[in-house]
Amino acid sequence: MTNPIESAMYVASQLFLYPVLIAIALLFVHAFYALGAFAWQAWQRHRGQPGGFELAAARARNPALSLIDLEALATKRLEFARIATRVAPMLGLVATMIPMGPALMALADGQLADVSRNLMVAFSAVILALLAAAISYAVVNVRRRWYAVDLALLEQGAPVLPPAPAPVHDPVAALAMEGVQ
What confidence score (pLDDT) does residue 111 get? Predict the structure, then answer.
């Protein structure tokens, strides 16, 4: 690389490796956090608990919220995860390409250990980025459907929460409650 522009571009691209790797690691951690929050919300929705129905809970706290306000709330709630689904693969590609330069230079010099190390970084980064994007994508799409259904029910004036299950007669629970009352 005798051309100063090529040298400057190479050096500048190498400066981005660690920030991109850190961003991928953060997106990967966030994807699992989002997956956990999603699983918790799915469990709450399955059990008919109000916490699983964010839009209905927001409307209950503030009845003045319009459907447009609730739609904006849903969009805001999905925003970071939607961005993560698109940015993570891009960062994975960047994290794949940056180590390729040093890997090719090491290959030209016959330093196979350096080639292996750089390729390991490149492939590991893209795998983590794609996993983060896939998890975020699944969470976003299911939540988007939940919010659409909830908004439609709110618009129709129908109850969003499923009706509470009928109480089951449990003689053991009845005996236990006798001592409490």
Answer: 87
Question: How is residue 114 written in tokens?
Answer: 């350096």
Judged by DSSP in three states, 25 sits in helix
pLDDT for 154-176, tens place per residue?
888 877 776 555 555 666 555 55
Query: 50 near 57, Cβ under 8 Å?
Result: yes
Task: Give the pLDDT confidence of 32-50 residue by residue, as tens digits.
Answer: 999 999 999 999 999 888 8
Q: Computed over its alpha carbons, how large is the radius of gyration of the chain?
A: 25
46-62 b/e with 16+ CB inside 10 Å = b? eeeeeebbbbbebbeee
| CB environment 87-114: b (16+ within 10 A), e (fewer) | bbbebbbbbbebbebbbeebeeeeeeeb
Contacts of residues 73-80 at CB distance under 8 Å and 24 or more positions apart, as own/partner, are 74/144, 74/147, 74/151, 77/143, 77/147, 78/140, 78/143, 78/144, 78/147, 80/30
Q: Are 125 and 96 in contact (CB under 8 A)?
A: yes
Query: For residue 140, what pLDDT band results from cuts at 50, 70 and 90?
Result: very high
**Per-residue pLDDT, 169:** 63
